[in-house]
Amino acid sequence: MRRRDGAVDPQDVTQRLLECVRSWGGELLLGRTVSGFLREDGQIIGIVTEEGAIAADRVVLACGTGISALLDGSGFSLPIEASPAILLRYHAAAQVVNTLIAGDDIEVRHAQNGDLLAAEDYPAHGDENRVEGEAQSAIEGRLSGTAPLQLQACAVGMRPRPRDGYPIVGPLGATCLYVAVMHPAVMCAPTLGRLIGDELLHGVNPAIPHAYRPARFINDGV
C-alpha cells in the first residue's frame, strides 16, 4: 500500500455516524424488522414494522442484499447478488501492520483495539473452518511476530453486488422509494453519501452518474 493509504473499521464508522445523528436531534429506531411498505390509495407512503407503521416522505433502501426481499410486491425488481465473504478477527500480541496488506493469500489490517482483521472469499467447498486455518497459517507465516494468533470471531458477511458492477442509486419511479446499494460500500460511502444527501434534500443531483440510476434495470424489464 502507499504511504498515505489507510483503513477504517466499518462498525466503528457506523457507530460514530449514528452518534452524530443523535447529537443533531435525530431519532434512531433500532432493532425493528421492516416487513413491507405502508400504502394509501395504492401509493407507498412509508414502511410497516413489527411494532407498527411509519409514514415517511422518502424511504431510503440501503440495506444491501435485503433490498430484493423488501421490493417483493412493490412492482420493482433490482438484480442485486449476494457475494459471501468470511470475516476473521484475531487477537494479536503486537502491531504488525501499519495500514493494510492485500495479497494473493492474505488481506489483513488492525482494528482500533489492536485485533487483527482478515477477509477471505467464501470457498466453493463451503468449509469455513478450513479457510480459517489456512488464513491463520498464511498470516503467521508471512508476518513476523504474529504467532500464535488467537481466533476471536469468524463470521460470514453477504456483500451486495449489482448485476453490472455499478452502484444503484436513485428514486424508483415516481414513488417515495430511493435505493442506495453498491460494492464496496465502505469505500464508496464518503463520496456517494454526500451526493445522495444533497439529492434527498435539494432534488436531482447531476453529479450522480446516469449509469448508476436504477432506471437502467427498470426500463429493461428486470
From TrEMBL:
Question: Which InterPro entries does the protein's record reference?
Answer: FAD-dep_OxRdtase, FAD/NAD-bd_sf
Gene3D superfamilies xref list: D-Amino Acid Oxidase, subunit A, domain 2, FAD/NAD(P)-binding domain
The chain positions of domain FAD dependent oxidoreductase read 4-198
UniProt-recorded name of the protein: D-amino acid dehydrogenase small subunit
Q: Which SUPFAM superfamilies match?
A: FAD/NAD(P)-binding domain
Keyword annotations from UniProtKB, A to Z? Oxidoreductase
State a GO cellular component annotated for this protein.
cytoplasm
Query: Which domain of life does this protein belong to?
Result: Bacteria
Q: Which GO terms describe its molecular function?
A: oxidoreductase activity
